[in-house]
Here is the input.
Amino acid sequence: MRHYSRENERSQSRIAELEQRKNTCEVGLAAISACWNQVPEVFAIFCVVCSSAFLTSWLRQYDFSLVQKTCRMLREVSAQLGIIE
Here is the structure.
């Protein structure tokens, strides 16, 4: 009986750990999603407000490495949650 009790405790501990990890990943995914939802709005504002010459100049100077890092992070989080493989 003690063996089953210890197994049950380990299983319950693992379940709690995995639930905490899942919650952390979901929070991160929600934050990333919220940021990405703002990107089209920002570009729309720039397209309307700025002249095309200014926008072209700005885009040439923009560092897209942050976008690439965010995409990579989103893929990793999605893979951890089992959304993608």
About this structure: Residues 7 and 20 are 20 Å apart (CA to CA). The radius of gyration is 22 Å. The mean pLDDT is 77. Residues 2-49 form the longest helix (48 residues).
